[in-house]
Amino acid sequence: MIYGTFAQLYDELFESDMYQQWREFVESRLPKSARTILDVAGGAGRLGVLLAQDGYQVVDFDFSEEMLSLAFKHAQEAQVPMTLVQGDMRDLNGLEQYDAITCFADSLCYLDDFNDVQATLKQMAAHLKDDGWLLFDVITPYQTDEIYPGYMYNYEDSDEQRAFLWRSYADDDVEHGVIHELTFFNRLPDDHYQRLHETHFERAYELKEWREALLKAGFNQIEVKADFGSQAIDEKTTRWFFICRKQVD
Q: Which residues lie closer than 8 Å to 104 by C-beta, 6 or more apart?
């Protein structure tokens, strides 16, 4: 399989402990009867593989063909079955209904505006079985307004083969908006460095907006936590974890 260099570097450098934490969050929140999971924005399939190893039937749904190519590779290496589907999370038509839908790494915050968020939540509700569960996380306005502006992270591996620069700025044109500048330097065989650059835009929304959008989409049982579902939220929570149920009376 052929995949883009940027996707591969991102996959290699992403903090692996977070996948284990998402795995534990999913397993602690889903009932034992839930066996089918649609992982929206599942990317390179790292979480999907872990869940498949635990016996779940997983569909990795992602916009990026390069990421799905990596997911195919990871599933083969782990020797687990996992279905891969390329598409836009705002339109899940053609997919089945599932016991649970997951969407992590604040993926919903990358949508253009809240209309897109609302449309995506409605699609998710439509593709859940009765009494199905939606588990997702998003960054908070505290994260975008207080933590990210001026944030910088630099990484270089021990043998100087790769370096990663991450800088974040407030997006003055968007309320609770943030701009991420991501730059990879990849050492080539001739000792020159290949520079790869991407700009990502994220946006946070107030908790009240999330609750209203989820109710409108059809979720009538909504719980919000911090720290992968283990702590209560407060005014300095940087990431909300939502546990939502499409409950049928």
A: 22, 41, 47, 135, 136, 137
Sorted by where each starts, the structural domains of the chain and their CATH numbers stand as 6-139+205-246 (3.40.50.150), 143-203 (2.20.25.110)
**Closest by CA position to 68, among listed 137, 135, 1, 9:** 1
Query: Do the bridges between strand 162-170 and strand 177-187 make them parallel or antiparallel, or are there none, so unpaired?
Result: antiparallel
pLDDT in tens, 36-60: 999 999 999 999 999 999 999 999 9
Confidence band for 149, pLDDT divided at 50, 70 and 90: very high
Hey, what are 56's tokens? Answer: 């779940």
Task: Tell me how far the alpha carbon of residue 101 is from its chain's centroid.
Answer: 12
Q: What DSSP element (H or E) covers 95?
A: none
Half-sphere exposure of residue 104, counting CA atoms within 13 Å on the CB side? Answer: 26
Amino acid identity, residue 6?
A: F
Distance from C-alpha of 43 to C-alpha of 142, rounded to nearest angstrom: 26
